């Protein structure tokens, strides 16, 4: 079972948008044991599309195409697919009724020819009905390959993959099992981690592969096992994770994609009945935004004071002006006062504070570009640490957010 | 001048990470008039890499490869490239000295064989010296194609593209001009926009292409002009933008990639000497984080109160408990009181507030999932509006952030 993903659109080739659709589709295919062997991004150009389709024909069992189905004139996918299949475009009555209802009923506008033409599909295609938008998905077969065409708008594509594509693929193909386990580690760099686990890695069985996925402040280790006996694969993965735990246990924070630091921290806070608040200067609200990206965070997160101006630190958080004058706004003393201030103000068990200079310029603070002080107020006192996260601005902010969450997570775990 | 971008790594093919490198490279190439005609993601597999390289050989002038150069064992790119070129790996003395200095001098660890092997390069390759990491880039030529291999870590790849790759490409190739102009519109959907500008679009000259790039709350229009006379292209683009302005002027907020809503709003606030604060419930700090992602935002942004808990709304923002009890926490009345509360607390000219239910569950609020109320406090009164942004949670938050920034931008522009 081999699949290829094709993305159509000049906006990807000139770098204006990042292709996130392919990643979503690959993840969905991987879960049901369909391996994606190639991803391609090509232009909105008829000859390029035709050439690509014929190069993939019969080499892949499934070719899934996103993009180029919108209502506007730069979209030529549908006509080109039709030509490739030697078919003709016809109006699909169900889609036409749906589009009409959406435009006239929901948006309260008269329907236009551009809208109506969204209901055109190749006569031999099976329509994948798009309840969340106007462009239908299409399932077409030619010789040994299934071609699936989906709109490029991410939530429409996702809806169709989950509700129409995956069930049809499961029904049509027999597939091997591919199981993955991702181990999220924080605080050890990639090379050092590689050395620490070298002998474990060398002894992995042939059907288990390891990959390192580094990103700011963390390294994820991904184990992939492939075979026909699902139970045996699961047993092997569990055994390997257990061995790994004995070597680098203290660096492991969570497992798999869903267990991000903010999710794992949220579970821990909820389980222990603890509450948290933040006082953010250089992170500008991003710690709060990250914590509240988790549904149910209102159970443990009371809020944040984003104190970008010094007067906000003084008037709302109760940081003494004299402290700022003496130590400067980016200092251990001010970070400490901010954390204690918001802990008291919001009456929470724990509080995090950040102050720093994210750059790119020195600005009014004396601190070097990249400097961030993180303070953690606990029921038993306040701890601070100073870092330099380098540049650019975006990386400084992201590393400060990750490090702050890592600090509080490890602190609570100790107790 | 045709280029292809190849990304190597199983983590992309199973959907674990999104490929952002290709987008960065494409944008950099586009700026110097090198067209990217294809992007491919392939596996860490020797045969797959060899087959891909030979299929691109002589069809493209430049093939740029990222990924697969890290210190760990899942990286086989370098050996495979060497085999493809019929070359052998040798130690590069300058790279070896750099790696040794970085590991022993900066990280204070003894150097290992894994580290040393990062200095291995094909003997005929030109080394692209990587000052910000340990894996060197490589420039290799075979027949009519230049192959460039770069590490996959985004900031190392970016450093090498900007400092080593682009200058060498400019020196080596003659290129046509490709000029782009992006027009950022807010508040009109894609289909309606397409109808409003249909006759303008039909009359665009042949060498100018238009693309629609919709995303939550906005549609970007991208004009691309290609030819040998740079000045003529620029005049034509300016003329077309001027025409477009006459048709949909009120929807246009900014131009080009850098002019995001938060940047344009920041400029306007700074220019007028106005200040802003936010009180955020359902957006959880993301409006503040978006505003402060812009360097220099401390000139106009004083801060935010992220009032996730009701008690935070009452105790810090001064929202009357009675108001919450009577109208519920997601209501026009509470949003209004939050905006006025933070405007007064932080003494700013303008203030934005959000309260809503981002979902996925109904939670303790009575409000439907997806409901968001946005309030804007101005020097002349407070305005509120209620929206339903549907699902999922992430989209609700993003649309609320965009809509809030759009509201204040358009309000200030009126005055």
UniProtKB/TrEMBL annotation, chains A, B:
Protein origin, superkingdom: Bacteria
MoaB/Mog domain boundaries: 4-172
Pfam families found in the cross-reference section: CinA (PF02464), CinA_KH (PF18146), MoCF_biosynth (PF00994)
InterPro entries named in the record: CinA, CinA-like_C, CinA_C, CinA_KH, Competence-induced_CinA, MoaB/Mog-like_dom_sf, MoaB/Mog_dom
CDD domains: cinA
Family affiliation: Belongs to the CinA family.
Protein name: CinA-like protein
């Amino acid at each position: 079972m081999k699949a290829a993903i094709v993305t159509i659109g000049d906006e990807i080739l000139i770098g204006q948008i990042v292709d996130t659709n392919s990643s979503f589709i690959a993840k969905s295919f991987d879960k049901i044991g369909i391996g994606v062997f190639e991803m391609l991004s090509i232009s909105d150009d008829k000859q390029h599309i035709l050439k690509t389709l014929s190069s993939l024909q019969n080499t892949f069992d499934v070719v899934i195409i996103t993009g180029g189905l919108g209502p506007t004139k730069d979209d030529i996918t549908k006509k080109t697919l039709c030509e490739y299949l030697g078919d003709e475009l016809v109006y699909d009555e169900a889609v036409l009724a749906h589009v009409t209802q959406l435009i006239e009923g929901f948006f309260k506008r008269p329907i236009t020819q551009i809208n109506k033409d969204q209901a055109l599909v190749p006569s031999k295609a099976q329509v994948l009905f798009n309840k969340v938008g106007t462009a239908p998905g299409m399932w077409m077969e030619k010789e040994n390959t299934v071609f699936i065409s989906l709109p490029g708008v991410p939530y429409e594509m996702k809806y169709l993959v989950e509700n129409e594509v995956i069930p049809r693929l499961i029904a049509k193909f027999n597939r091997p099992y591919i199981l993955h386990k991702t181990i999220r580690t924080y605080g050890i760099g990639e090379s050092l981690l590689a050395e620490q686990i070298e002998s474990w890695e060398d002894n992995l069985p042939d059907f288990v592969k390891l990959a390192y996925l580094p990103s700011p402040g963390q390294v994820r280790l991904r184990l992939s096992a492939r075979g026909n006996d699902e139970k045996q694969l699961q047993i092997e993965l569990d055994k390997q994770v257990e061995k790994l735990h004995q070597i680098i246990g203290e660096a492991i924070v969570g497992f798999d994609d869903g267990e991000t630091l903010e999710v794992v921290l949220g579970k821990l806070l909820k389980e222990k009945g603890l509450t948290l608040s933040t006082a953010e200067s250089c992170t500008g609200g991003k710690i709060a935004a990250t914590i509240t990206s988790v549904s149910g965070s209102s159970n443990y997160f009371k809020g944040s004071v984003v104190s970008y101006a010094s007067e906000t630190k003084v008037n709302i958080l109760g940081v003494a002006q004299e402290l700022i004058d003496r130590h400067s706004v980016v200092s251990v003393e001010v970070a400490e006062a901010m954390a204690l201030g918001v802990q008291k103000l919001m009456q929470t068990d724990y509080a995090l504070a950040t102050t720093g200079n994210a750059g790119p310029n020195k600005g009014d603070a004396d601190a070097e570009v990249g400097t961030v002080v993180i303070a953690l107020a606990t029921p038993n006192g306040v701890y601070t640490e100073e870092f330099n996260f380098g540049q650019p601005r975006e990386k400084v902010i992201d590393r400060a957010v990750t490090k702050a969450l890592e600090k509080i997570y490890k602190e609570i775990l100790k107790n």
